[in-house]
Amino acid sequence: MKNIVLIGFMGTGKTTVGREIARQLGMQFISTDDIIEKKAGMPINDIFSKKGESYFRQLERETIMEISAGSSSVIDTGGGAVINELNLKDLKIEGILFCLNAASEEVLKRVGDEKHRPLLNVSDPLTRIKELFKKREPYYKKADYQINTSGKSVSEVAVEIVKIYRKLSNKPTS
Fold first, then answer.
1. How far apart are CA 12 and CA 99, in angstroms?
2. Measuring CA to CA, how many Å separate 17 from each of 28, 73, 126, 146, 158?
3. What's the predicted TM-score (pTM) here?
4. Cα–Cα distance, 121 to 61 (Å, whole number)
5. I need a surface site. Which of 41, 57, 78, 89 has the fewest CB within 10 A?
6. Which long-range contacts (CB under 8 A, 24 or more apart) does 164-170 make?
7. Within 13 Å and on the Cβ side, how many CA atoms surround 116?
8. How many Å apart are CA 29 and CA 72, to the nearest integer?
9. Residues 83/39, Cβ–Cβ less than 8 Å
10. How far apart are the C-alpha atoms of 106 and 13, rounded to whole Å?
11. What is the rounded distance in angstroms from the CA atom of residue 162 to the CA atom of residue 17?
12. H-helix or E-strand containing 146?
């Protein structure tokens, strides 16, 4: 069975929803950020501050190349993973891409107090969220499905994705 790949901006629920989907379907859950932290031996915030974003993106690329060849997993990607077209292409080979979306204000509410978000360690995080989202939106639109998470529980979003996935998985192949 194909992978379920969750893409989208930080704070849209990719990790929590991904874990719930994996639980419901009995699939393996893979977080690209967790793998990157293990490879680097440090948290993402430290990777950004000590080694820079380009080093992080290099590790992210290697990780996506490794995991995208597998199947039957729920893959949670970092918010900027798909700005590299090669990552997007690789993830689509064995995966169905679901982009999780939320309003900028909702994202800020969800992640505003989290200090491990290196791209939001700025004086005006809401403006930064809007700028980053605008830059990434063309890539997010390349997902197979768009799922709005604003005002929905983790369970509601997971059920919506599982329903789509099951419908696709039951289609007869020609």
1. 9
2. 13, 13, 23, 14, 6
3. 0.91
4. 24
5. 41
6. 164/96, 164/98, 165/4, 165/21, 165/25, 165/96, 168/2, 168/96, 169/1, 169/2
7. 10
8. 9
9. no
10. 11
11. 11
12. strand 145-148
pLDDT in tens, 54-109: 999 999 999 999 999 889 999 999 999 999 999 999 999 999 999 999 998 898 88
Residue 155 predicted with pLDDT over 80: yes
Q: Which of 138, 2, 159, 163 is nearest to 82 (CA)?
A: 138
State the pLDDT at residue 26.
96
CA distance 120 to 82: 18
Q: What is the DSSP letter of 125?
A: H
- Is 78 within 8 Å of 55 (Cβ atoms)? no
Burial class of residue 33 in the structure, from the number of CB atoms within 10 Å of its CB (0-12 exposed, 13-18 middle, 19+ buried): buried
> Given this model, what pLDDT does residue 174 score?
45
CA separation for the pair 146, 142 (Å, rounded): 9
Distance CA 39, CA 59 (A): 8
Q: How far is CA 147 from the centre of its chain?
A: 12
Task: Report the C-alpha gap between 168 and 162 in whole angstroms.
Answer: 10
